[in-house]
Amino acid sequence: MSLLRESADYELVKKGLVLCWPQAVQAKQLPLRLRLLKVRIGRTAVYLLTSVLDSKQLTVKQMVTLYKMRWGIEVEFRGLKQTLDRAKLRCRNDRRLLAELDWSIMAMAVAELFALREQLATKPETCGQSRQAADPGRRSLANIMRALRACIRTPDARPRAGADLPTLLREAITDGYHRKRPRHARYRPPNPDKKPLGAPKVRKITHQEKKQLHQRLEKSAA
Fold it and tell me: The pTM is what?
């Protein structure tokens, strides 16, 4: 999908306003007026699109925050498919399949809430490892599941000091060291045919497209 920069009233709009108007729907509907921004998150250049054209109503900082929150949802999906091994559901009936998916998401949420309760109730200065160990923002779903599975496997065993379930959940956090390069996935080999998308292609609207735009505007106003 290409992004078209509106040139008819280009001087009346701020830099970054684009039209999203695929050729397949130009005769049926008006284009989407969007704001295109290029931001840098870490070392990666990210292009963000929003329908909120007023920069005061939605600032660049707020857009970056929302993007990072959205990425957190993607991480949860990855945990559901990999850590909980639900990339392939087992049920064959469609209704049971939805029930399996619902209960899998519920189980993941409840497990993280158990760990969150322990981590929020722990004071940083009394934590067994470090001051960052009680940070709920660094909770690790993989370590949470390891702690729960270890206790389920030996329900009658008396845990040693520091190996009880509350302590394991409290210390179920991600590692704190800084990587110099991104961590590569172990489960998927690199695909040589997959190329990066790169920057979006933005071009000026053509004369024919401008004519169709005015026709659509007149038709919608009638």
Answer: 0.61
